[in-house]
Design brief:
Oligomer: single chain
Radius of gyration: 16 Å
Shape: elongated
Distance between the termini: 52 Å
Strand content: under 5%
Structural class: mainly alpha
Largest sheet: none
Helix content: over 70%
Order of helices and strands: HHH
Number of strands: 0
Length: 115
């Protein structure tokens, strides 16, 4: 059961990565379902794409930084529920903080597209 938190953190990271990748594609436009939905990012398709390109860079870094520590915990501490629990809370906190940083950077990128 302790592994569930790590799996959910990986899932959160993967969804963030896929959403940013989808929004960064040429021709993508703001949609009502998924994406970095800030006022500055939904003003135009150019702002939307710029924001998601920046978000994609952060999402890739997040994936790299989450994968290694969680793999270390799974390989070296498989029978230590306390270690897994601490790791899952720390990694979840790091991933949420990183998403906030990425959203801020995305907003700045979107505002830079305005004339």
């Amino acid at each position: 059961m302790a592994w569930l938190g790590l799996i959910l953190t990986w899932t959160q990271c993967l969804v963030f990565l896929l959403v940013c990748r989808s929004g960064a594609r040429p021709g993508s436009t703001p949609n009502p379902y998924a994406g970095i939905r800030l006022e500055s990012t939904t003003r135009s398709p150019a702002a939307w794409q710029a924001a998601h390109r920046v978000g994609l860079k952060h999402a890739r870094r997040l994936a790299a930084s989450i994968l290694l520590p969680s793999a270390i915990v799974m390989v070296f501490f498989p029978q230590a529920p306390t270690s897994v629990t601490v790791a899952e809370w720390v990694l979840a906190g790091v991933s949420l903080a990183w998403i906030l940083v990425a959203s801020s950077a995305a907003s700045r990128a979107a505002l830079a597209t305005e004339p």
